[in-house]
């Protein structure tokens, strides 16, 4: 990593945190994919304990309590991470995606986008919705109609809020240059997504 890519805010170690924030990140470490390690995203956001605590309520809904099928949720998150060119988000969710049935071909197609011929029509619409939200801050009528053929109103809202959540997180991760955690694979991003 070059000097211009070094983290702008290094993750805080648990012993650098106030007791309440330390307990929170230790609980997250015990529950999360880091094998007991505090993930860099949480160590970095711990610079602002009140923000971390409040953000986690929403993030927990989007990731763990959403009405979206887990595979659909992860395809949308991966496409959001790709479009935002967020190495941390992409890498973390390639792993999460694999745990819910996203395979290597799916990962390749997420990067290629909704027009890749390997997508079934509904999954193509799902990725198209992410692109439309990214580009136009809305979902176009034809895409909405396709998604509405299968999704409930609750699921449609969960999709919009998932894309918004991971857009926000990708911006934060990119702006403060959070490094991928050990063992998380990266991806070379093209000149333009």
Briefly say what this structure is:
By secondary structure, the protein is an all-alpha fold.
Write the layout of secondary structure elements.
Elements: H1 19-31, H2 40-45, H3 49-65, H4 70-83, H5 87-98, H6 104-112, H7 121-136, H8 141-148, H9 153-176
Helix pairs in contact: 3-9, 4-5, 4-6, 4-7, 4-9, 7-8
Describe it.
By secondary structure, the chain is an all-alpha fold. The protein folds into two domains: 3-64, Up-down Bundle (Single alpha-helices involved in coiled-coils or other helix-helix interfaces); 68-176, AhpD-like, CATH 1.20.1290.10. Helix content is 62%, strand content 0%. It is built from nine helices and no strands. α4 (70-83) runs antiparallel to α5 (87-98) and α4 packs across α7 (121-136). 35% of the residues are buried.
**Shape summary:** globular
CATH superfamily of the largest domain: AhpD-like
Radius of gyration, in Å, reads 17 Å
The string of secondary-structure elements, in order, is HHHHHHHHH
- Main pleated sheet: none
Contiguous runs where pLDDT drops below 50 for at least 5 residues: none
The CATH topology label of the largest domain is AhpD-like
Residue-averaged pLDDT, rounded? Answer: 91
Distance between the termini: 22 Å
So how many helices? 9
Strand residues, percent: under 5%
Count of strand segments: 0
Find the structural class using helix and strand composition. Answer: mainly alpha
